[in-house]
Amino acid sequence: MFAPFIEALRREGLPVSITEYLTLMQAMRAGVAGYDVEDFYHLARATLAKDERHLDRFDRAFAEAFKGLQPADQAPGGDDRRELPEAWLRRLAEKLLGPEELAKIETLGGFDKLLETLHQRLAEQQGRHQGGSKWIGTAGTSPFGAYGANPEGVRIGQDRSRLRRAVKVWDRREFRDLDSDVELGIRSLKLALRRLRRFAREGAATELDLPGTIRDTARNAGSLELRLVPERRNAVKVLLLLDIGGSMDEHVRASEELFSAARAEFKHLVSFYFHNCPYERLWSTNRRRAETMRATDQVLRTYGPDYKLIVVGDATMSPYEITHAGGSVEHWNAEAGAVWLQRLTGHFRRAAWLNPRPRASWREDGSVGLIHELMAGRMYPLTLAGIEAMTRDLVH
Amino acid sequence: MSFRSTARYIAARDLEVAVNAAVTLERPLLVKGEPGTGKTVLAHEVAASLGRPLIEWHIKSTTRAQQGLYEYDAVSRLRDGQLGDARVHDIANYIMPGKLWQAFASPQPVVVLIDEIDKADIEFPNDLLLELDRMTFHVYETGESVTATHRPVVIITSNNEKELPDAFLRRCFFHYIRFPDRATMQRIVDAHYPNLRADLAREALEVFFRLREVSGLKKKPATSELLDWLKLLMAEDMPAEALRAGDGQAAIPPLYGALLKNEQDVHLFERLAFLNRRNA
To answer: Per CATH, the architecture of B13-177 is what?
Structure first.
């Protein structure tokens, strides 16, 4: 009976195996969930989804596999995966509004218009809202929100029907923020970057090396011979190059978050700024650019090939800025950006480019494609999944 | 016997189901969630409600799986050997049982808390696979096998610093503690401070949730911070009006040190409050 559900989960990309399936059966037989649909949902979630990033996908698969559990008139329509479930809103409104009120909705331009306006306002609105006559919130006269006085209103988040409570639990999709392809918060960034950590023994020998001591003592015919080894420390060195200004302005915040997250993570971390494409000069403080200018040559000489190079930039510029000498928008560069990029990637054994723009907007032609090629395909989107892929690539 | 919300600990229904599944099937329960949402406290409450003793194993970055089973103190045996102590002839004298051994050997069923498992080395969970699955392990030095007399309830918490291996996850139940919504938070506050004045509680929750919405905070205050703050407010006998921010959206709440734990967050907040006053 649950086979289609398991299949739906695997289609959504959850790594569910026979072990978990059997565990669920066992738990059902032991009566953990009783005969309550909502408890079954909770039990299935605890058994089958093992990562909070999977919870949203789990909810979707659950809704799909068990839509028969809902009353027939409420079968969900083809709602957009990452949008508000429109069909659900529509059903809710139909349930809550009388026929004459539904007729009144026509005055606003019909249901579709109403939903469209709702989407628009949801996008515009920031934060919680109470009262007032335009925004979505509570106790107002706007058409959207709960406990309002507008007959054309669409209710949001107002628990109405006890019977449908169970359905709503997974239709609420509360774990959407945790899905890994969604953009990152500073904390998750830190955690993703932390996977780069690697421990090695460096520095003064302060810890007792027990196997070594025993071996040497045995060799010494039983009289104690102490051996010491250095403590284990995080040995990852990172050189961070951040694109700043111009087309990066909207991404500067994201880059700065990456920067501050990275700072706390590594013992050896050096960062420099550049504009659009790295050329012969980099600077270490954006505000005091002229004073903190460093020649790229010098940077290459100072930091060894064991540093991991991470470039953060949207790689969006005129292709000439990469391919031609003198192509830079800011100054006269004697050598093309491509030459400098090749020097950087040739010097550092491990290098990657992080692009804050979504992967869908990388065009194959144009500058993004060029840089993609120059980085030997090591360009990753600035999302949790992208950073994970990058760290996997960088640790080797 | 099943786990329910207690007078002191408010558990959502999904958490109750997850705990009961883990207790019934005698498998580990892995709990994740924002810091300060009661992951560690959960183990204490489960132990209390099942009436079993709790064995806590706090994990650090240097903890190894073997330490939870037993440690062989080779150095003191070596010393005893050189001093000619008679104890040296029995190797069992130098085997120190770890937390899991204690739990397995306990004559009554116990609850084991493995706190912050992600702090340890990345291989740590893999090294405990068989031990947590079969609840048995072998002591190589003495040749004996330790098997659990009663399978303990194992609660594992993680802050998500490291990815846990799939093989490990397969053997666990998983629960993610979501940040409580307003109504749940009200119940939690009521459970902890039944004598708190209603108006103060309402205003404090209002301030608290508004504070969580401020974007750019490095560490959002969580349940434990709220409870600390309320305790302070009660100790100072703060009137509810003091919390009402007047016109400013983001006036600095009194005794904010309990809520904001990061210097940069305090700066950010002061700047917002300043901007608000100037605009008003």
So the answer is: 3-Layer(aba) Sandwich (3.40)
**Average pLDDT, stretch A307-327?**
83
Task: For residue B215, give the amino acid letter.
Answer: S
Q: What span, in angstroms and rounded, lies between the C-alpha atoms of B55 and B199? A: 40
Residue among A198, A184, A212, A158 at smallest CA distance from A391 = A198
How confident is the model over A385-395, as pLDDT tens digits? Answer: 888 788 888 87
Separation of alpha carbons A149 and A221, rounded Å: 93
Domain A3-70 has CATH 1.25.40: no
**Burial of A347 from C-beta contacts in 10 A (0-12 / 13-18 / 19+):** middle
What residue ranges of chain A are covered by domains with CATH 3.40.50? 236-395
Per-residue pLDDT tens over the stretch B201-252:
888 888 888 888 876 677 788 888 888 888 888 888 877 777 765 544 446 7
Cα–Cα distance for residue pair A256/A261, rounded to 1 Å: 8
Closest by Cβ to A15, choosing from B14, B18, B166: B166
Residue of chain A whose alpha carbon sits nearest to that of B81: A222
Domain boundaries, chain B: 13-177, 182-279
In this prediction the ipTM stands at 0.80
pLDDT digits (tens, 9 = 90+) for A36-90: 788 888 888 899 888 887 888 888 888 888 776 544 333 343 333 334 445 555 5
As a whole number of angstroms, the distance between CA A321 and CA B195 comes to 68
Could you tell me if A342 and A332 are in contact, meaning their C-beta atoms sit under 8 angstroms apart? no
Give the model's pLDDT for residue A201.
67
**Model pTM?**
0.59
Residue pLDDT, tens place only, B189-209: 888 888 888 888 888 888 888
Return the residue of A nearest to B34 by Cα: A187
Report the helix count and the strand count for chain B, using DSSP H and E.
12, 9
Tell which B residues from 241 to 280 touch A, by Cβ distance under 8 Å: none
CATH code 1.10.150 region(s) in chain A: 3-70
CA distance A195 to A388: 8
- What are the distances in angstroms from CA B72 to CA A6, A209, A227, B77? 46, 15, 18, 9
Nearest to A42 among B14, B32, B218 (CB): B14
How many Cβ pairs closer than 8 A exist between chain A and B? 85
> What stretches of chain A adopt beta strand conformation (E)?
137-138, 145-146, 199-208, 228-234, 237-243, 268-274, 281-283, 293-295, 308-312, 350-355, 379-381
Whether domain A236-395 has CATH 3.30.1340: the reply is: no
